[in-house]
Amino acid sequence: MMAPAVQALRRAGFVGSGALAGAVSALVFTVIHQLLISPIWFALPAMLAAGAICGVCLAWSYTLVVPISSVGSWLRYNCFYLVMFVALGLTSLAAFQPVTTIAALLKSNEPPRALIGRALPLSGLFTLATAVLLCVGYRPGWRGAGSLLLTTGVLILSLGLNISVLGLVGVPHAALGVLALVFTLLVALGGVYAGVVVMLNRSLFGGASSA
What we know:
By secondary structure, the protein is an all-alpha fold. Helix content is 77%, strand content 2%.
């Protein structure tokens, strides 16, 4: 059995790699968004900080709810949150009627605070529902359950608030590509993050089953 001190050091290293991977994935997200959707380069410092915080939360909560680390369990854990974002976007599209347009949002340099406030109950519902589903699936202790709730809340605050307003934004047929690109960006963001963590922890994952 691994000594507690060694186990703690490995956990700290894994969480640290989550911070670095989160910042890298946020950089990739910002570059793609800048080139293909709208200029957000001015927000890079905030994006890097948010990415690092999200990365820390994901890695930390994973260590608390998954007893044996493996590439398979790590990817499944990250995929659950990706499914959460997609479900949040689809639910927003089904629940809300458009009150503005993509063109109006892209012209504005301000975050859509009014839209976010209107969709806030939906965001809160998804935060609680996702944490509950994760607790049912992983059956962690109280500390693990708290980490899942915190991680879900941080992810919703960082990314989910903008996704929750999709139904409030009119999407003409010509702009469907923009909507598809948003979901593609989510997949890229999650894929880069999960992949960088695996690369930074090859010894940890290599010594465990990939299942």
